[in-house]
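pls design
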């Protein structure tokens, strides 16, 4: 049993109903994660602000963003995240086979992406720490610490 209500647009606190409606329009429905965050207006507003900052200032394309999210969701063993980001990755143009390869950690179809995902997996698994070899491999592949606000930072 969930400890937090998963809101609809109608049941959400008045202060976030408009934002939840916008998310519903963007995704075609109120995703469970958004409905749950609506229980805490500060959580939903923070999520929206972070997503907006990534959209405004991020340099990763949609495929790269979804690949990172899918790799991190796999490290975290989050089946909800894996399902959501598999669909997002496919919508962004990755194939089913490529999403499976990302979840397996075997990204042989794009060496540059593989280097970035290796660093992202390490950051997710080790509280933000990336070993020197993985960091250097990402740099050598063409990624930079300023590639995006959502890039590995340590």
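designed seq:
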């Amino acid at each position: 049993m969930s400890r937090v209500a998963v809101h609809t647009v109608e049941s959400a606190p008045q202060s976030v109903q408009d934002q939840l409606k916008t998310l519903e329009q963007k995704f075609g429905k109120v995703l469970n994660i958004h409905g749950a965050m609506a229980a805490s207006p500060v959580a939903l507003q923070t999520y929206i602000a972070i997503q907006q900052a990534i959209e405004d200032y991020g340099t990763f394309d949609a495929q790269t963003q979804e690949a990172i999210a899918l790799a991190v969701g796999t490290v975290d063993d989050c089946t909800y995240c894996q399902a959501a980001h598999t669909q997002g990755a496919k919508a962004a143009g990755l194939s089913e086979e490529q999403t499976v390869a990302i979840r397996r950690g075997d990204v042989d179809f794009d060496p540059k992406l593989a280097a970035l995902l290796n660093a992202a997996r390490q950051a997710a698994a080790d509280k933000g720490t990336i070993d020197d070899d993985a960091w250097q491999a990402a740099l050598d592949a063409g990624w930079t610490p300023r590639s995006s606000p959502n890039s590995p930072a340590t």
